[in-house]
Specification:
The chain is α/β, with parallel strands linked by helices. It folds into two domains: 154 residues, Diaminopimelate Epimerase, Chain A, domain 1; 68 residues. Helix content is 55%, strand content 8%. It is built from eight helices and four strands, in the order H-H-E-H-E-H-E-E-H-H-H-H. Strands 1-2-3-4 form a four-stranded mixed sheet, with helices on both faces.
Length: 251
């Protein structure tokens, strides 16, 4: 029973990613909240494509209406890992998340970028964002913050971010990768289903066994009721003795 409880908990945990994990974008901007205008989105794509071409640092901007009740730091970290921006072999991706409901901004980056994105830059980013969103609006504020981070990364690589011509449509080439822990949860779900089937089978067998024992006991006790020499109500019981009594009376 304890295993079933644990499996149930893991099942709920496994179903949680489905409520917040979004498809990985084909380009550098995933504007699910619909707050970035077309011109700004094009500028962001050009800027972030230029950054990746020169530094091999993938940088994605994500906007959402809400985080489905998930804490923003956890949400940003899990999304970055699920989209392949942060992996064991290549931990130098960047994800900038804007939550429309809270007007909150979160910067998530790989450990390889610690020298480029220092704590002081993160604090500056938060201060500037609050100022930008009041004066410029969400769309422009997101672009200026992304530009600030991209510029810091470019300086650490000693490159320029002037966008060259003839690049074509930017395609970041990300794919959603299921977190390793979710596989464990799905396996636990399978064990939960198998365990439920096993318990149901045991219950059916136990109930059918009780029914058979009850029928057997009823059949053994019925002999007195259907005693061929008694006065029961069987074929040779009381119902059959009455005609004999009438014959005796006639004689």
């Amino acid at each position: 029973m304890g295993l079933i409880v644990i499996a149930s908990w893991l099942y709920l945990l496994a179903s949680q990613p489905k409520t917040w994990l979004l498809p990985a974008p084909l380009r550098y901007v995933a504007d699910y909240a619909g707050v970035i205008d077309d011109q700004t989105e094009e500028q962001l794509n050009d800027l972030l494509q230029s950054l990746q071409l020169r530094t091999d640092v993938p940088f994605v901007v994500l906007t959402v209406e809400h985080t489905s009740g998930v804490q923003l730091p956890w949400y940003a970290a899990r999304t970055a890992m699920a989209w392949g921006l942060r992996t064991k072999d290549k931990d130098r991706g960047v994800l900038l998340v804007y939550v429309q409901q809270d007007q909150a901004l979160r910067l998530e980056h790989g450990n390889e970028l610690r020298s480029a994105i220092q704590p002081g830059l993160t604090t500056e980013l938060e201060d500037r964002f609050r100022s930008y969103i009041r004066s410029e609006g969400a769309s422009r504020a997101i672009y200026l913050c992304a530009q600030l981070v991209a510029g810091a990364i470019a300086r650490s690589y000693d490159v320029s971010l002037t966008t060259p011509t003839g690049l074509g449509q930017p395609n970041i080439g990300l794919k959603v990768k299921a977190p390793a822990w979710s596989l464990l949860c799905y396996l636990a779900t399978a064990w939960l289903i198998l365990g439920a089937i096993w318990l149901l089978r045991r219950l059916v067998l136990r109930l059918s066994g009780k029914a058979q024992r009850k029928d057997h006991a009823t059949g053994c006790g019925a002999g007195s009721a259907f005693d061929p020499f008694g006065g029961g109500e069987g074929p040779f019981g009381t119902s059959q003795a009455r005609p004999m009594e009438k014959i005796g009376q006639r004689r």
